[in-house]
Specification:
Layout lengths: L2 H32 L3 H29 L3 E5 L9 E6 L5 H10 L6 E3 L1 E2 L8 H7 L4 E2 L4 H6 L2 H17 L5 E4 L8 H7 L12 H10 L3 E10 L7 H5 L5 E9 L14 H27 L7
Parallel strand pairs: 1-8, 2-6, 2-7, 3-6, 4-5
Antiparallel strand pairs: 7-8
Helix pairs in contact: 1-2, 1-4, 6-8
């Protein structure tokens, strides 16, 4: 099909998948809100998760139908769908989320994202994220926090409440350490020391580890590369993502950082900074290698 027609068909299928399943998801969420019994709420949370997994499977189906993407993926072996895992990834496009969901659905628990507060107003999806108990963060800037330190406590309390819910059922907590999508303008503005990445931020990771570090069984580090250029969401719908390379590696949880006070202890903040900087240096080198490597056979 021509790219425009492909984009229209893919958009319609995505919309149909969403319009059918989100109302069911909202009904489950309302029942959970009204029922006072924790056991019943947990069962409804599992039901909501199954509906979300079905939505992701539907998206994978229309992706296979409308897209001709070559997938080069390594590292899926040995993943656990029944435990708790912290997932990190580089972030370049909204397409990253569909790539992650397509490859990880059913292999690890449902990915839960920390979202900007404004995204709750996205039609259908904002309500779906609320129903799935995704935490909405106000994302205060360092300047705002410096002017009003109480704002940092608000972010910490939001994270703590979200992690308390995550700890009740197996969950994959998704953390884009860069905090935003990487663009040439942002990269230049940051004067990032990495060739292919923005500077990583350890604060959200530290808050999650402090809140439920004993639950996490592993860290899943994901690297996503688009050899032909980073597609926009519309370009992706139109079939513009010809190739994508995904590398996954399972890392141990850094035990020496669990339970440490990231907020009040400068030494702990430095230890977290060193840990994420080493992770990011390795990821930057891997991306450089993948961009130079010849294309593999599609999967």
């Amino acid at each position: 099909m021509p790219p425009l027609l492909t984009g229209i068909v893919a958009s319609l299928l995505l919309g149909l998948n969403t319009v059918v399943l989100v109302p069911i998801l909202l009904l489950v969420a309302l029942l959970r809100l009204l029922l006072p019994v924790p056991v019943l709420r947990d069962r409804l949370t599992l039901l909501a998760t199954k509906i979300a997994n079905l939505w992701i499977s539907g998206n994978s189906a229309w992706m296979r139908l409308t897209q001709r993407t070559e997938w080069d993926v390594q590292g899926l072996e040995g993943l656990n769908a029944q435990g708790w895992v912290m997932v990190t990834s580089n972030h370049q496009s909204w397409v990253d989320i569909l790539v992650l969901q397509h490859q990880l659905n059913g292999r690890i628990p449902l990915l839960k994202f920390f979202l900007k507060q404004q995204l709750i107003w996205v039609p259908f999806m904002g309500l779906a994220w609320w129903a799935l108990e995704f935490p909405f963060m106000r994302r205060h800037s360092e300047a705002q926090i410096k002017a009003n330190p109480a704002l940092r406590a608000q972010d910490q309390e939001t994270t703590r409440k979200a992690c308390a819910k995550f700890a009740r059922t197996p969950t994959s907590v998704m953390n884009f350490l860069e905090g935003t999508r990487n663009t040439p303008a942002k990269h230049a503005r940051q004067q990032s020391p990495y060739t292919h990445l923005l500077k990583p931020k350890a604060g959200g990771l530290a808050l999650a580890f402090n809140a439920m570090g004993d639950k996490f069984q592993a860290i899943l580090d994901v690297t996503i590369v688009y050899p032909d250029g980073v597609p926009t969401f519309w370009q992706f719908l139109c079939g513009g993502m010809r190739r994508v390379v995904v590398r996954l590696r399972t890392l141990p949880v850094p035990q020496h950082l669990l339970g440490a006070d990231y907020t009040a202890d400068a030494a702990v903040r430095e230890a977290y900074a060193q840990w994420v900087q080493q992770l990011w240096a390795e990821k930057d080198a891997l991306i450089a290698h993948l961009l130079q490597a010849p294309a593999r056979a599609p999967r």
